[in-house]
């Protein structure tokens, strides 16, 4: 009985309640589809959620780190599109091998994200504005390179795209394997490395992190570099999925990634969240789309309507959790997150202006 009570106390903990709700919602949606539609309850349908959304999962992983750190990245969808265009041009026009193309686009995405992080930190610019500019910049580069859709006919790309790995009675593509390797690596980085702990500390209270001597500058730039890397990797996976490059691809993907991250239990105020939650957030979005497909009578726009309603519901849940944590004064709970959320309105102002000065001495030491 005591173990049951301890497990229940852990579930209702403000730090774990959002992800618990996310997992329960995913199970409820999948269970609803299994009851309502013949053939929905199958191993392959579950695997297809990953096959069709592997690229979104990778992008959402990068977004999770950004939001946990207290920031936002609106450029991810455009970086995905830019990646597909660059891959298509390098493959079809310049005939580069895929093993050279992939490191090139990953480096491109990482540098793109790092530059945004540097602008945000050292010039005290709002993350929303910087990444919005990055979104326009990357999307414009796509159409500067070409305004046409480029189909990829390279045999190596096609082999990777056609690869299937049997898992029981179902199968998955190479994209799913890449996404899961990325997920496992991200879980390790977030919860078992100093960088991950610094990300949570900065998201919880950036000013306290500065006073503790944490490398705020390196961490913040690293977070956006990681987001850029995940966006480029998601773009590479998306290229394997569609075998083409086009400047209009990835439109709205930044909003899907944010929605999946928030529905996955990451607090928008920063400091609280789990990478594994983004997996279930993406799963919920995919399940909603699959339910509408199985129904056959509903417009695809119902997907957006339901996602919007869920996003509002989870934002309200987060606000209630923050108020509860503040009222009970939980040490180590989300009380620090509330404080950080208030300070973040001017964290990019005077406090952040000293961040690279205050934090530099410990780094050099």
Please outline what is shown here.
With 365 residues, this protein is mainly alpha-helical. The protein has helices at 2-11, 17-36, 43-68, 76-92, 98-122, 127-145, 155-162, 174-192, 194-204, 206-211, 216-242, 253-263, 275-295, 301-328, 335-344, 347-353, 355-358, 360-364, and strands at 150-151, 164-167, 170-173, 244-245.
Structure write-up:
This protein has 365 residues and is mainly α. It has a single domain, classed as ABC transporter involved in vitamin B12 uptake, BtuC (Orthogonal Bundle). 75% of the residues lie in helices and 3% in strands. It contains 18 helices and four strands. The strands form two sheets. Strands 1-4 form a two-stranded antiparallel sheet. Strand 2 and strand 3 form a beta hairpin. The chain is globular and about 60 Å long. The relative contact order is 0.19. The C terminus is likely disordered.
Features:
365 residues; ABC transporter involved in vitamin B12 uptake, BtuC; 4 strands; hydrolase activity; Monosaccharide-transporting ATPase; hydrolase; transmembrane transporter activity
CATH architecture call: Orthogonal Bundle
How many DSSP H or I helices?
18
Q: Which regions are unreliable across 5 or more consecutive residues at pLDDT < 50?
A: 331-365
**Count of the separate structural domains:** 1
At the fold tier of CATH, the topology name is ABC transporter involved in vitamin B12 uptake, BtuC
- Largest β sheet strand count, sense and barrel closure: 2 strands, antiparallel
What is the strand arrangement across the widest sheet?
1-4
Q: Give the C-alpha Rg.
A: 21 Å
Alpha carbon gap, first and last residue: 51 Å
Number of strands: 4
**Mean pLDDT, nearest integer?**
88
EC number: 3.6.3.17
Keywords: Cell membrane, Hydrolase, Membrane, Transmembrane, Transmembrane helix
Transmembrane segments: 21-43, 55-86, 98-119, 125-146, 167-190, 221-243, 255-281, 301-321
Membrane topology: Multi-pass membrane protein
């Amino acid at each position: 009985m005591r173990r049951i009570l301890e497990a229940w106390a852990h579930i209702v903990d403000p730090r774990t309640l959002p992800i618990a709700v996310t997992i329960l919602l995913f199970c409820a949606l999948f269970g609803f589809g299994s009851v309502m539609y013949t053939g929905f309850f199958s191993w392959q349908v579950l695997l297809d959620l990953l096959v069709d959304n592997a690229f979104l999962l990778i992008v959402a992983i990068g977004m999770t780190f950004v939001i946990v750190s207290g920031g936002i990245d609106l450029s991810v969808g455009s970086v995905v599109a830019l990646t597909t265009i660059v891959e298509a041009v390098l493959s079809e026009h310049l005939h580069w091998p895929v093993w050279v193309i992939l490191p090139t686009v990953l480096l491109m995405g990482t540098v793109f994200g790092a530059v945004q992080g540097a602008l945000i930190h050292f010039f005290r610019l709002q993350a929303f504005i910087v990444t919005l500019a990055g979104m326009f910049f990357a999307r414009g580069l796509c159409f500067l390179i070409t305004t046409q859709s480029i189909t990829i006919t390279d045999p190596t790309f096609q082999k990777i795209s056609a690869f299937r790995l049997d898992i029981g009675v179902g199968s998955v593509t190479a994209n799913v394997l890449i996404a899961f390797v990325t997920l496992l690596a991200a879980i390790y980085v977030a919860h078992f490395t100093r960088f991950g702990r610094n990300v949570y500390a900065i998201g919880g209270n950036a000013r306290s992190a500065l006073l503790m001597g944490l490398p705020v500058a390196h961490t913040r730039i690293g977070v956006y570099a990681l987001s850029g890397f995940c966006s480029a990797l998601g773009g590479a996976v998306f290229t394997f999925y569609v075998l083409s490059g086009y400047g209009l691809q990835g439109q709205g993907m930044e909003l899907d990634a944010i929605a999946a991250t928030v529905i996955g239990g990451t607090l928008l105020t920063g400091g609280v969240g789990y990478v594994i939650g983004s997996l279930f957030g993406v799963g919920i979005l995919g399940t909603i789309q699959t339910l509408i497909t199985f129904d056959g009578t509903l417009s695809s726009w119902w997907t957006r309507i339901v996602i919007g309603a869920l996003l509002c519901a989870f934002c309200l849940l987060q606000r209630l959790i923050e108020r509860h944590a503040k009222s009970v004064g939980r040490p180590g709970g989300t009380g620090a997150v509330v404080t950080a959320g208030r300070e973040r309105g001017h964290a990019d102002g005077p406090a952040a202006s000293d961040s690279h000065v205050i934090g530099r001495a410990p780094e050099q030491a």
